[in-house]
Amino acid sequence: MPEQENDTNAEFDQRYSEKNTLKLEPHLHICIDLKIALKILTTTIVQLTFKSSLAKKEINIRKKIIDAEYVRNIITMLQNNLEKTYIIEPNKKIAQAIFLLLVKIA
To answer: What's the pLDDT score for residue 73?
Structure first.
């Protein structure tokens, strides 16, 4: 389940929820099912984006916009831009979700 570290954070952390360690090979990407589905209001979208702590290590995710029409589990794509294998331990924060209100443009 997404979690907000504190009331002043705009984002909700997404964790790697598998029980086994994940090896992300150099210059490859992998899709990860976050095992959550959200019911999004039609007045809201969710932007799934990278964790800065991983981006500093050259581990990025493909940004994703989720709207009310998307009703399946959220899947994210992690990419390793390093020359070495990167290990992702269970329960590691791998992405963040930011909830944004849509503004009606007339």
So the answer is: 92
> What is the tens place of the pLDDT at every residue in 93-105?
999 888 899 988 8
Q: What is the CA 20 to chain-centroid distance, rounded?
A: 18
d(CA 35, CA 50) in angstroms, rounded, equals 17
Cβ atoms of residues 78 and 30 within 8 Å: yes
Which amino acid is located at 60 in the chain? N
Q: Copy the structure tokens of residue 53.
A: 């702590």
Residue 29 to residues 14, 23, 26, 61: CA-CA distances in angstroms? 18, 11, 9, 9
Half-sphere exposure of 40 (CA within 13 A, CB side): 24
| Band of residue 78 on the pLDDT scale cut at 50, 70, 90 | very high
Alpha-carbon distance 98 to 64, whole Å? 11
pTM of the model: 0.78
